[in-house]
Design a protein that fits this description.
CATH topology of the largest domain: D-Maltodextrin-Binding Protein, domain 2
Strand content: 15-25%
CATH architecture of the largest domain: 3-Layer(aba) Sandwich
CATH superfamily of the largest domain: Bordetella uptake gene, domain 1
Distance between the termini: 65 Å
CATH class of the largest domain: Alpha Beta
Largest sheet: 6 strands, mixed
Number of helices: 13
Shape: globular
Strand order of the largest sheet: 2-1-3-10-4-11
Helix content: 40-55%
Radius of gyration: 23 Å
Amino acid sequence: MSLLSRRIFTLGMSAAATGLAVPGAARAQVPAGDIHFICAFAAGSGADVIVRFMAEKVRAVSGRSIVVENKPGAIGNIATEYVARAKPDGLTVLVHGGSSLAANMHLFKNPPVDAGKAFEIVGTLMRQPVLLVVRGDSPLKSVAELTAEMKKKGDKGTYGTAFPTARVAAALYKERAGLQTVDVAYKTSADWVNDLNSGAIDFAVVDTVFGLAQAKQGRMKVLAASTADRISAMKDTPTLTELGYPMDIAGWWATFVPAATPKPVLDQLRKWIGKAGADPATAEFFASIGGESWLLPPAEAKATYLKEIDAWGDYVRIAKIEKQG
């Protein structure tokens, strides 16, 4: 063996013994550099608030720099495609609604990626209902009163929705209640607030982040939530199911990486994000926006995600949502 060969062999054995420089060991870690948390909606949105909170919690746990990037558009598809095609090294993480990813597989004629195959779910974070609301000064005090009023109005009654989960929950309520009420679709929840308060629409279905904030200001009155059971943070809010309109519709949040991400990298991310998600302060934050912590084991999380993709095929049919091109 030549002197050069012996020196290379000695260095390699030393590296293997210490675990410092073996290529396999290097691949077992999330590589150096900023970790990018991708948000599918604009800065300042409810989604952005959630992503930035988790970015700060993971930064504290991991000691790594976490950069939030907002990539809004196409109901989340721009961010989805960006992450699906990113280098699978653990540095690009989609923090998004698993329910939203599932929905988009059925809301578009040609989804940019197959969400069931393009991603590996790192871990779930929380689940939250959508809320059935009327304007703050409405004389209607319950879902029963709203239902009776909408039956009187027939197809002259209207309601506002701004995203798929809200549209599905509203359609299920309409179907269960035997209403002819007309859905008025808006781009964002903020777009229908004035119409609700002016009486141009009769009620709306909204996410908890926006809805609870508006309710605190007296601009909306929450009548019911869409999950089958009451959320712990909203114990005083009845569910549509217990009021006689059975459904279990929830928006749930999780973290995702490209499907080809190596398992050791995935395990490292799961350790960091799982620890951040289990922090009591995280549970308190989720409760403050009408959600509850929802931390599933990896295998269960993946099974839930794939089941959700299938379920949205039925939801889109029930809500009669026309697929986009």
